[in-house]
């Protein structure tokens, strides 16, 4: 019997495993880097062990430190989660060698699937259908497009789609470099790239007595940069014969390597309906909740019971209904999926399952994956599940860094997705329309800016009357009240002008709008990050009502006390006879205006902007904090072309190219490999041609 379990991981997966352990009566041990010292997973465990340092290579990727932590805390088992060392056979051996229970497959099974090239050889012998690899030196124009892949990789790292033969050598070198940096193994291979294919996978579960379950299918076709964004179970639109082929192939794969525990066999399904083996993940998947929801299972509990030697039933429970999961990332899809950092003030999604890593008040840094949470909806039918998920995300309170929330909502409501006609190129193909401003957004944004202005005015303490707070009533006409806001992240500026007259509110842009009420919120809440949230620091101000959600906390904002945030103000307007309610929350100079139709984010602009705030033309600034991993073969004085890659930044487990903004001369290069940079740091200067 497992009595105390260490989770060799962090954030969402650690919290997910701890939740099951509490249900089963198993004590828990967390590990944390210095960057995660105040993270929720470290505070939720019964014990926590520090891993000195911030970078994964110094902390969560140090198998020796993880084993030492388990022994020091008195744990008798280790759960690897996913990512980091979860698929490293040597780590599994080290855990077992220390006399601890490994909650995962045998090291030999992990080793067999660790290299994608070796895995394909094993699957071919087991009769599993697959795509034949191509020798990189023998790729011809007739083979295009092809996919370059890292043999030891995962999560989209070291993958490149090549459509032009001349580009292949550079992409091979780039993939090798990224694979070596990410996995310590630069081996790559090339295979045909299947246009219009779907990514379908089968959840397997195997005990130590020879029983193998195949738990239906999952569709994971909606991906960005070969990383999954929306997943669902069961995979829609597959005929019975294809489902049987997928299940039999997955079971054969598990039997071929003597698998035990939870794992996933992934396939590409061609437009013609033929399945090809892609890879096997020898761990629990990020998207496991959709399988849990339709089968009524706790896969983590089953992992633990299998590790304790318990047998599975002869057959798994049948699936019922449909489940859809969306991954909420701190990233900006409209700007090349750029990761975002900052304080997550508030994350609240009503009525749906939410598996989150950070909690309100946590800082989102640069060291780890930018996923904030997984949001899961389940319903009797696919259409209902998709509708519930889109509706829940649209109404969610998400205050903090820019996220992909809007893209998720639009993707879920896209006609192709609603009709289950998606493939792995869906997001790339539809990205412009999924990130473009809607035609009616301008009016909605201007109305939200008006609500923000009225909420800001209502918070003024000069008088207790609404009229006084909104600027006062005057006997003769006067200049209107003026406030300016910049919409985020698109940068559109809105000037709000209004007057209070004997007939009520007069808003210049909205003559049909009447103010019904503007409640400023009852006081402020002093919060100081995760320490206050966990009760280790007193909370000042009004006490929350019983059952109320967490109060918003502050993040850095010009001129704002970093420990203060206003409670939401409530503005109710009559818009051409329709009552509209806005909840406006302020953090420093940021305003989050939540409505039933979505959220608008603004920065309140000062009345007198700083005239010295400017950037020299041609300056390339770091778009995010990160590490310079590679610099192209250029130096100061070289001529460069528009769009030419100059260097690569790594942040949040992803590489980002920094390119020349125009053709000209590289007059300065301030970045070197290994250089840590903050957002806004000057990387290079390109002087454009006349």
From TrEMBL:
Limits of the ATP-grasp domain: 120-308
Classification via Gene3D superfamilies: 2.40.50.100, ATP-grasp fold, B domain (3.30.470.20)
Domain Biotin carboxylation: 1-432
Domain Lipoyl-binding: 611-687
Any single Pfam family the record assigns to this protein: Biotin_carb_C
Transcription regulation in keyword set: no
MF-aspect GO terms: ATP binding; ligase activity; metal ion binding
Cofactor(s) this protein cannot do without: biotin
Keyword ATP-binding belongs to the record: yes
InterPro entries per UniProt: ATP-grasp, BC-like_N, Biotin_BS, Biotin_carboxylase_complex, Biotin_carboxylation_dom, Biotin_COase_C, Biotin_lipoyl, CPAse_ATP-bd
Low complexity: bias regions: 518-539
Record field: compositional bias (Basic and acidic residues): 485-495
Disordered as annotated region, ranges: 469-495, 516-565
Keywords for the protein's UniProt record, in alphabetical order: ATP-binding, Biotin, Ligase, Nucleotide-binding
Xref: PANTHER family: BIOTIN CARBOXYLASE (PTHR18866:SF126), CARBOXYLASE:PYRUVATE/ACETYL-COA/PROPIONYL-COA CARBOXYLASE (PTHR18866)
Annotated protein name in UniProt: Acety-l/propionyl-CoA carboxylase subunit alpha
């Amino acid at each position: 019997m497992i009595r105390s379990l260490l989770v060799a991981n962090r954030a969402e997966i650690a919290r997910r495993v701890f939740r099951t352990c509490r249900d089963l009566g198993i004590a828990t041990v967390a590990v944390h880097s210095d960057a995660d010292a105040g993270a929720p997973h470290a505070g939720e465990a019964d014990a926590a062990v520090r891993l000195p340092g911030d970078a994964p290579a110094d902390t969560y990727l140090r198998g020796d430190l993880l084993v030492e932590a388990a022994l020091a805390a008195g744990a008798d088992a280790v759960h690897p989660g996913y990512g980091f060392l979860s698929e490293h056979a040597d780590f599994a051996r080290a855990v077992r060698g220390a006399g601890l229970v490994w909650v995962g497959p045998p090291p030999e099974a992990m080793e067999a699937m660790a290299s994608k090239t070796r895995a394909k050889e094993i699957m071919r012998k087991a009769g599993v259908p697959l795509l034949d690899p191509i020798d990189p030196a023998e790729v011809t124009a007739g083979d295009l497009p092809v996919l370059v892949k890292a043999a030891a990789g995962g999560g989209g790292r070291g993958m490149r789609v090549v459509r032009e033969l001349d580009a292949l050598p550079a992409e091979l070198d780039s993939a090798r470099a990224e694979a070596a940096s990410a996995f310590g193994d630069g081996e790559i291979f090339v295979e045909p790239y299947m246009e219009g294919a779907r990514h379908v996978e089968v959840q397997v579960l195997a005990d130590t007595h020879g029983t193998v379950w195949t738990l239906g299918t999952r569709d994971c076709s909606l991906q960005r940069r070969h990383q999954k964004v929306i997943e669902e179970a069961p995979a829609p639109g597959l005929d019975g014969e294809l489902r049987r082929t997928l299940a039999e192939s997955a079971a054969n794969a598990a039997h071929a390597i003597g698998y035990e525990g939870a794992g996933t066999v992934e396939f590409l399904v061609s437009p013609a309906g033929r399945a090809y083996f892609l890879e096997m993940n020898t761990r629990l998947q990020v998207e496991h909740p959709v399988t849990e929801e339709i089968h009524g299972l706790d896969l983590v509990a089953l992992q633990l019971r299998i590790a304790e030697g318990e047998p599975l039933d002869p057959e798994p429970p049948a699936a019922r209904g449909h489940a859809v999961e969306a991954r909420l990332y701190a990233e900006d899809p409209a700007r090349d999926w750029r990761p975002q950092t900052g304080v997550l003030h508030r994350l609240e999604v009503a009525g749906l399952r939410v598996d989150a890593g950070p909690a309100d008040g946590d800082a989102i840094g640069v060291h780890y994956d930018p996923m904030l949470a997984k949001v899961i909806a389940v319903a009797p039918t696919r259409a209902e599940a998709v509708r519930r998920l889109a509706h829940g995300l649209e109404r969610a309170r998400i205050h903090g860094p820019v996220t992909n929330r809007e893209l998720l909502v639009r993707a879920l409501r896209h006609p192709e997705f609603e009709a289950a006609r998606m493939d792995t190129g869906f997001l790339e193909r539809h990205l412009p329309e999924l990130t473009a401003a809607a035609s009616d957004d301008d009016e909605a944004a201007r109305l939200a800016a008006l609500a923000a202005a009225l909420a800001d005015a209502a918070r003024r303490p000069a008088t207790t009357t609404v009229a006084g707070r909104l600027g006062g009533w005057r006997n003769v006409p006067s200049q209107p009240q003026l406030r300016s806001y910049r919409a985020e992240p698109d940068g559109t500026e809105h000037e709000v002008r209004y007057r209070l007259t004997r007939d009520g509110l007069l808003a210049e842009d909205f003559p049909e709008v009447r103010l019904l009420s503007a409640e400023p919120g009852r006081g402020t809440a002093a919060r100081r990050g995760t320490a206050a949230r966990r009760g280790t620091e007193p909370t000042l101000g009004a006490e929350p009502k019983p059952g109320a959600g967490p109060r918003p906390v502050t993040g850095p904002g010009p001129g704002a006390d970093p420990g203060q945030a206003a409670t939401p103000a409530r503005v109710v307007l009559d818009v051409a006879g329709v009552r509209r309610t806005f909840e406006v929350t302020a953090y420093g100079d940021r305003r989050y205006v939540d409505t039933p139709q979505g959220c608008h984010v603004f920065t309140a602009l000062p009345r007198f902007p700083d005239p010295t705030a400017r950037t020299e033309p041609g300056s390339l600034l770091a778009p995010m904090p990160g590490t310079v991993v590679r610099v192209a073969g250029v130096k100061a004085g070289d001529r460069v072309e528009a769009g030419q890659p100059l260097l690569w930044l790594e942040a949040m487990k992803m590489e980002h190219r920094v390119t020349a903004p125009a053709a000209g001369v590289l007059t300065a290069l301030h970045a070197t490999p290994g250089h840590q940079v903050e957002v806004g740091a000057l990387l290079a200067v390109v002087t454009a041609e006349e």
